[in-house]
Amino acid sequence: MSEPILEIRDLKKSFNALKATDGVSLDLQPGQIHALIGPNGAGKSTLIHQIAGSLKADSGTIRFLGQDIGSLDMAARARLGLARSFQISSLAQEFSALRNVMLAVQAKAGSSFRFFRQVTSDRRLIDPAMAMLERVGLAHRAHVPAAELSHGERRQLEIAIALALQPKAFLFDEPMAGMGPEGSKQLTTFLDGLRHEAPMLLVEHDMDAVFALADRISVLVYGRIIATGTVDEIRRDPEVRRAYLGE
Ligand code: ADP
Ligand code: MG
């Protein structure tokens, strides 16, 4: 197996007496979708927060692209190419979808785009931003304010923003939540294609999506991973069936 993009070892986080993550280890391999499943309160979001840097781990290590990122803040981790989407909405509500993506393109370009007199008409921002919106299927809504987009469209926009940052890995926390069957199907197809651009750690309750997408699945229960394996291995695992799949 190749060097993992993301290497998590023995991560722990307690909230008072509650061990939300209790020694979690996992590897995210290049080109792969690694799904993280488990019941409500298992610690999935806590784990995502710890990896993204919005929550500091009590102990354990996180290596990203070979570098220990445990002491970096969330912005520094994002600059290294760790993109998180969902459950934190960073949309500028009054701005159009296009403008939101342009801000991300600008942020990525950093100091080389230091001064904009006419940000809103700069082709160096508009063209790549529009291309991102096309990729996520939102180009026809480019000029609609973020606040007026539907739930599903906002998720598409958040992905476009994440893409604009040209990430090396994605962290997705329940991207299908609140989406109808058609939206979930579209997003599944989209994520499927995305794995070769950047691997992803995907927390998701929608088992159809998980089974369709995952190269590997880890099952988290009460802060501990009780099983990791391929879709087939996880579906066959008696402990998983008992603890999570409810069979
Ligand atoms: P999941 O995403 O798997 O549903 P969470 O990571 O959100 O689970 O939560 C794991 C456990 O930690 C839950 O029991 C939850 O109530 C608790 N928890 C999460 N965040 C906090 C917090 N900021 N303060 C106290 N308890 C928390
Ligand atoms: Mg959660």
TrEMBL record:
Domain ABC transporter stretches: 6-247
Highest taxon of source: Bacteria
SUPFAM superfamilies assigned to the protein according to its UniProt record, in alphabetical order: P-loop containing nucleoside triphosphate hydrolases
Pfam families: ABC_tran (PF00005), BCA_ABC_TP_C (PF12399)
Record key words, sorted: ATP-binding, Nucleotide-binding, Transport
GO molecular function, one term: ATP binding
PROSITE patterns, per the entry: ABC_TRANSPORTER_2
InterPro entries registered for this protein in UniProt: AAA+_ATPase (IPR003593), ABC_AA/LPS_Transport (IPR051120), ABC_transporter-like_ATP-bd (IPR003439), BCA_ABC_TP_C (IPR032823), P-loop_NTPase (IPR027417)
Protein name: ABC transporter ATP-binding protein
Organism: Shinella curvata
